[in-house]
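[scheduler] slot 2 assigned
[scheduler] job type: sequence-to-structure, two independent chains
[scheduler] chain ordering preserved from manifest
[runner] begin chain α
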Amino acid sequence: VIIIGRAGSQVTATLPVGIRLRLVAPDDLRVRRIMEQQGYDERHARGEMKKLDASRARLLANHFNTDIDDPLGYDVVWNSESTSPIEVSEAVLAMIRRRLSESPAS
């Protein structure tokens, strides 16, 4: 099961083989990606990014009393500016395989 966003890092915190990960990137790169994906101008894209960031932070704070920016809330944090999707997926698979092999249920 893969949970993207929606406080997935907190919802899955007690799963023995779950991987709580966060992808981050510099704001300027995030704005460019939003502009490309949504067709927004820079001002609109930056506003949408800030609105989404605030909404996500509020969700974790209000329902889980957690700071979204606390790295201890995640097993790993990747910067998507310097890490490719292939690198992330290979690392996640390796982590899951390791956890499955060490799990008492395996």
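[runner] end chain α
[runner] begin chain β
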Amino acid sequence: CACSSKETAYVTGMRSELRQAIAAQERYREAHGRYATDLAAVYVPPSSGMVEVSAFRPTARGFDIEVRMPARTRTRCRVAYEGSSPMAICGDRPPRALIPSPLPPPR
């Protein structure tokens, strides 16, 4: 896509939040042997309010998450996570691997 640098920055921010949500779910799984069925129990988006979780759905082997920045862009990013090689899909961009980040301390 011929995206502006602002749009690219927004998408980067949303991908970062997807990574944080995945890390929070992985911490929960390590402690409880399964993923949380309520994302709000393990992950709180940043207090800036720019990024919000617009959809969360537990699945048999993982979960699906969609995030957005409604005040900044119409683009949404989503990931279907089943424990390995998560791929973020953001708007009309090609799917992109989310490099797992080390498990940060809880927020």
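[runner] end chain β
[qc] chain β: The two ends are 34 Å apart (CA to CA).
[scheduler] slot 2 released
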